[in-house]
Amino acid sequence: MNAVLIVLGALAVAIGGYRWYAGYIDKKVVESDPNKVTPAKMYMDGVDFMPTSKNVLFGYQFKSIAGAGPVVGAIIALQWGWLPALLWLFLGVLFIGWVHDYISGIVAMRSDGLSLGGLSYKLISPRARTILLSFVYFYLLLLAGAFGGVIAGALIKLPSGPLAVLILGLAGALAGQMLYRWRVNILLMTVVCVALALVGVKLGEMFPAPVLIGSLAQSKFVWGLFTVVFCFISAVLPIWRFALPLNYVAFYIVMFGLIGGIIGIFVGLPPVDAPAFTQFTIGIGPLWPILFVTIACGACSGWHSMVTTSGTCRQLESECDAKPVLAGSMFTEMVLGVVALMTAAAAIPFAQYKELMKAGGPGAVFATGLSNLLNIVGLPIAYGKTMATVIIIILAITVMQLVLRFMKIATVELVGDQLPIMRNGPVATFVAAALVLLLIQTGWWQYLWILFGGANQLLASLALMVASAWLLSQGKKAAFTIIPMWFMFITTIAALLYTSYNLLSKVAAGQVKGEALIGNGLMGIVALFLVVAACFLLADGVKALKRYREPGRAMPSEAK
User: Fold this and answer.
1) Domain that holds residue 367
2) pLDDT by residue (tens digit) across 141-184?
3) Which of 204, 262, 279, 538 is within CB 3.0–4.6 Å of 164 for a Cys-Cys bond?
4) Half-sphere exposure of 64 toward its Cβ, with a 13 Å CA cutoff?
5) Which of helix, strand or coil describes residue 454?
6) Is 555 domain-assigned?
7) How many structural domains compose the chain?
8) Is residue 372 one of the residues assigned to a domain?
9) pTM for the full predicted model
10) 141 lies in a domain?
11) Within-domain flag for 432
């Protein structure tokens, strides 16, 4: 099999799914209306509610949902072979992923910009809100720990990244100032800030971390602290000041690498060296259910409903922007996942893939594979490695800065009444950042990734449950959300139970000590908590779905 055919297949799935399936749901089921006033315009406060051009918002949404997920997940999943990974990327995004993202945004937008917690209270039950917020908080903790571990590992193994990331942060802050304060033309702002970020990549190559900070460049704690401080600053600032413009600028860096990788595949015509299938059970577990949580982003991801309901739906200028911004971003993320898979399966020999996975993890695999593809189009290997390193770091750090922002919101909603000090944004964010740093320092990243993936897909099933309740309450068809909901729930419960058993059994048998003991025990307990919480939520959700199916029990239809 040639990598070109696989990339063409990804483009066909993305274009066909967006045009026909998404187009049908948008027009015939949701009936998006350009004349409806969106929450962004109704409640504009310049902090969370902010009408934003769909061209800027697409970049924000794509960068916010993608993170390092489609890259890391696809590369890890290659251990089962490229065919299972590819099938899940194609089928997952086509029948579950874009549906989840788009419907979550529509439901929140037509409910005055409510977050998942508010939606669960309104559509499921009052108890569901408290349980869901607790679930979300611990889910976000796992997510931040997993992505923080990826970042720390990448910065240790590829030291050209730190300075480049810092300069990218400055470019993002400058973009916000130019666009929202100085009212500079968006084209000029884009050229200046993206050019600054690209110069930062070169400077990172010239001044790697060991030159700047010496032996501290090999410290996991240093880079974990670097990550949470960077994300803390982003989380406490207004979204227009840093998070939104940073994501916009970073989008171009990611797209540069993505398009460069695709061109490298088409020019170099590399054959796929990895086997189509290796074996059903590998070191991290069996193909079902573990593959389906290893590849989360790119196929389906509950994180996307967090971004969409707590952020993007509060910035959409028009309902008609939901399809290109939400569905379009999800299909684009799948293409990124496929390109990442090809950097591991075709751009390097399979034997080298296995060596790099042991030595440096998915970050090292992606950096080596993408730099080989970019070298085909004329970029030096060293610059290409720095570029690939920056891409995977900014993908991960983009998610983490939003995670801390959402953990702050969840903290206020959960314990703000009982602990008034937690209503203070910086205080709530600091507590979240401290917990994340603890998990980065003590957790083994592969188990963290599996647990994050399981919690992530479980959240997706719960978001689909809320969306199904809304669809039924409006008298609309809901089979296209209910069937994926059950598939995701059953699969992810199995994955979480499998992983939790492995973690806690090692603790009970005394096979881990020190930091690993703390990390394994904490991760295993959190996984069990998520399973129990999800089961309670599902029970309430099933009752709500049955209630909405009864004649005369649906909510009054919205005015069109």
Assistant:
1) 3-549
2) 877 887 888 788 778 877 888 888 889 889 989 998 998 889 88
3) 204
4) 33
5) helix
6) no
7) 1
8) yes
9) 0.83
10) yes
11) yes
